[in-house]
Write a structure and sequence with these properties.
mainly alpha; Arc Repressor Mutant, subunit A; Tetracycline Repressor, domain 2; 0% strand
Length: 219
């Protein structure tokens, strides 16, 4: 049973306790890493007894997996909603505004400090949790790229975009919009401000359109 479905059937007090434990564990993992965090610390930050933590989670590995699972679910929701944001009936005149809106929302979603911190944590723990790192890659950025590729394929079929390789175009769109600030945030911990995120997304979309866009009225 998923965490969301489980929460809908449990006692509200249990739901609150689990939420407090997850919030405490997330904060500690992101600040101290998985190895540097203990269940006792999680209990202290959550303000509950250590026994209560163990009553809800077998160990900190289970907590770590749930926290990564929450991030994966967030990305999957974004990917699921993406095709509707690039409707198949878009024309060349409306496409730039739609792509600019998408690029801005992608930059906001991907460059959120907690998402960057989680990615950095996963990289650090990839040897201990290779299957978790792979799952995140496949189901978070991977699903977003899949959704972008599918949407670009539909727009190419309707002659709004000129895209010979939809997968490569999807990867290029994502990197143009967030790649450089994400690399900097991941490697040196410098999160871009709102103005920088917006500028990178805007200019990335303009570059993408210069390569793949069609002039209005051209088929």
């Amino acid at each position: 049973m998923s965490a969301r479905n489980r929460a809908s059937t449990e006692d509200p007090r249990v739901v609150r306790t689990r939420a407090a434990v997850v919030a405490a564990a997330r904060d500690l993992f992101l600040r101290k890493g998985h190895a540097g965090t203990t269940m006792e610390e999680i209990a202290t930050v959550a303000g509950i007894a250590k026994r209560t933590v163990y009553n809800n989670y077998a160990d900190k590995d289970a907590l770590f997996r749930e926290i990564v699972g929450d991030a994966i679910a967030y990305a999957e929701t974004f990917a699921h909603e993406l095709p509707g944001q690039l409707a198949s009936d878009l024309d060349a005149e409306d496409l730039p505004a739609a792509l600019h809106d998408l690029g801005a929302r992608m930059a906001h979603a991907i460059l959120r400090p907690e998402i960057v911190a989680l990615r950095r944590l996963l990289i650090g723990e990839a040897r201990a949790f290779p299957e978790l790192a792979r799952a995140y890659f496949d189901r978070a950025p991977g699903r977003v790229i899949d959704a972008l590729a599918a949407a670009f394929g539909t727009l190419a079929d309707s002659a709004v975009l000129d895209v010979p390789d939809v997968r490569r175009a999807a990867e290029q769109f994502a990197y143009l919009v967030v790649g450089a600030p994400l690399d900097r945030a991941m490697l040196v911990g410098e999160a871009p401000g709102a103005a920088e995120r917006a500028a990178c997304a805007r200019e990335g979309v303009e570059t993408f359109l210069a390569r793949y866009g069609r002039a209005p009225g051209r088929r």
